[in-house]
Structure formats: structure tokens, C-alpha cells
Amino acid sequence: MALCSICPRIPLRFRPKPISPFLSKPQICLAYRVYSSLQSTTPSTRDELGTVSIGFLGMGIMGSPMAQNLIKAGCDVTVWNRTKSKCDPLVGLGAKYKSSPEEVTATCDLTFAMLADPESAIDVACGKNGAIFGISSGKGYVDVSTVDVASSILISKQIKDTGALFLEAPVSGSKKPAEDGQLIFLTAGDKPLYEKAAPFLDIMGKSKFYLGEVGNGAAMKLVVNMIMGSMMASFAEGILLSQKVGLDPNVLVEVVSQGAINAPMYSLKGPSMIKSVYPTAFPLKHQQKDMRLALGLAESVSQSTPIAAAANELYKVAKSYGLSDEDFSAVIEALKAAKSREA
Predict the structure, then answer these.
(1) CB–CB of 312/298 below 8 Å?
(2) pLDDT tens per residue across span 162-215
(3) Across the strands, what pairs with 113?
(4) Are 294 and 305 in contact (CB under 8 A)?
(5) Residues 6+ apart with CB under 8 A from 256
(6) Residue range(s) occupied by CATH 3.40.50.720 in the chain
């Protein structure tokens, strides 16, 4: 530890230098041991939960309902968002507000971050007035954003260099599960922080998995979302084909829902897709971002993913039609457009 030249007994602390969000592509090899918990952690009492000060960075479509559930459970929550007005409903429920990630981590024991993409996650954690400038030894940072493996490892290193603990915990689930506290957490990183955060994860989710080293949670989330995006593209093809051959697509949705290939999102989104209505639960732009990151992960380990690659192209087309902020089920519009061009 460096000492002051005027008074050698006084240690000097240096602010970490903000880092650039631009990363080189990694070569990745992941190994992990899995721990699964289905509400296995007994939630603490309301009073006990309130003794841990919780920070929450990012009040978007996912972060806001997650933070609301913590507040309703009796947690002491401090919030931040780039657009301050998005914090107002949380403050109305009893949350405190701070004007920067640095201020949040400086005043909170445990900070969660839910950001839209890797660039935002890195900037909020490591950029100007970022979380690393307020966090310190004995505190914890839980990044629940969906990012690539390299970004998660980078954020982890910067957080841990301060003496704090780090846990990545991307979620499987969209707006409604976030509102209902039914998310699935895919965690990796410091096991002591996983155990400390467990009661709060149980408030926001229905299950959690501990996957070992940092990067494994990010990788698992990308694989899951790659599968989901590919399934949705295939489902959209099926709806349009059923219509083309004179079948009732609503009956198709019912048939699928009763068979071995059933997935909840088919029954949930199918009727709206048939009506060309796409209420946003998971924005299409985020699905395409996750497809892109998953394809990058696959390339880094030389794994062929032709189905996902084809689906990704459809999401890119849908984005070009101005559907970025619609639900990812709006990918069906890209197929409709392709059909029109072929006609």
C-alpha cells in the first residue's frame, strides 16, 4: 500500500482509472460446477432484510419491477437511473435516490445493476462516476445485466480490484416474471456474495443457479436466449405457414400448447402475433443483441450455429423496419415482408 510522503502513517487511495467499453474478442474456455436452488434459501424476516442497504442501478423495463419487489419486501433500497424521472415511482414507494452509481455504491452494502447492453454495463460500473469509485472492501456488486463473457470478466476485475466482491447474475425471464418475482438467476462469481445475495434473489426470482467462475453465468444466459430467439423465429414461420395453407393459426397455437413442443411463450405470444400486436415484454433490439453476442461466443469456441445465425438475420431485418422497441415476437413481420417481396 502506498504511504503519504508527508505523514508515512497515512495510506493513500487511488481512484481507479475509468476504462473504455471497447474490448477485443476473447478466446473462451469455461468450466464450472452447478449449484441449483429452488427457493432453498429461507427468506429473512422483513426487519432483517432492512438491515442490509441495497442499491439498484438501472430503472428500465426489468430493473424497475425488480427494485419495486425489493422495496415491497421491506428492503432499504437506493436507486439510480440516467433519466432521473424513471426513479420517481420508486422514490414514491420509499426508495432513496442518488445522482450517480458512485454515490449508490458508496452508501450501500450490496448493489444490483440491470443495464441494457455490455457498453452500458461497463460504463455504469467503470466509467466516470461509476460504481467502482464508491464501492469498497466488504461490499458487493451483483450485475444482473445480459452481457458477453469478456465484459462480465472485465467488470468483475475492476470491482474486485477495490476489495469488493462480484457476482454476475443475468436473469431468464421478461417483464411479467420480473413484476411477479418469478425470474431465474444464472449466477457466477464470489460464492460468499452469492450466499449473501440469496435472500434478495429469492424476493425477485423463483429459482437461482450458481455456476462457478465469472463468465459462466453470462455464457448460460446467452445460450438460453439464443435458443429462445431461434424458437420464436421458427414459431413465426409456423404461424404464417398455417395461414398460407388455410388453417386457423389459433388452433395451431392450441395444438402446440398441448404437445411435447409446448413452451409458455407460444401460448402467451401466439394470439397477439396472429393479430399483429406486439406488447413489449422483451424488446426485439435486446433479443437481436443477445443473438449477436451468442454467435460471438460460439465463434470464439469454433461451434457452428447456423440456425441461430439465420434467426439473427430475421431480427436484424425486423430492426430495420423500425420494430426495435416492439416485443421480440414482432420478428414475424420480417417474414411477412419477405413473403411480400417473393410474391
Answers:
(1) no
(2) 999 999 999 999 999 999 999 999 999 999 999 999 999 999 999 999 999 999
(3) 57, 143
(4) yes
(5) 235, 238, 262, 266, 270
(6) 35-213
Confidence at residue 36, expressed as pLDDT on a 0 to 100 scale: 46
Residue bearing cell 440491470 = 114
Q: Which amino acid is at 228?
A: M
Strands 183-189, 171-172: pairing is antiparallel
∠ CA 105-14-51, rounded to 5°: 25
Distances (CA, A) of 304 to 146, 268, 313, 315, 333: 22, 31, 16, 19, 27
Question: 111 by DSSP, 3-state: which?
Answer: strand
User: What is the per-residue DSSP string for 36-90?
Assistant: EESS-SPPPPHHHHTTSEEEEE--STTHHHHHHHHHHTT-EEEEE-SSGGGGHHH
CA–CA separation, 134 and 95 (whole Å): 19
Banded model confidence at residue 46, pLDDT cuts 50, 70, 90: low
Number of CB atoms found within 10 A of residue 66's CB = 25
- 139, 221, 269, 319: the active-site residue: 221
- The radius of gyration of the chain from alpha carbons, rounded to an integer in Å, stands at 22
Query: Which pTM value belongs to this model?
Result: 0.85
Q: Which amino acid is at 45?
A: T
For residue 37, give the C-alpha cell. 436452488
Residue 85 reports pLDDT greater than 90: yes
Mean pLDDT of the chain: 90
Tell the CATH topology of 35-213.
Rossmann fold (3.40.50)
Q: Is 285 a catalytic residue?
A: no
Q: Which CATH class is domain 219-342?
A: mainly alpha
Please identify which residue in the block is written with the cell numbers 415482408: 337
Cα pseudo-dihedral 262, 267, 273, 279, rounded to 10: -130
3 state SS of 122? helix
Ranges for all domains in the chain classified under CATH 1.10.1040.10: 219-342
The residues facing 325 across adjacent strands are: none
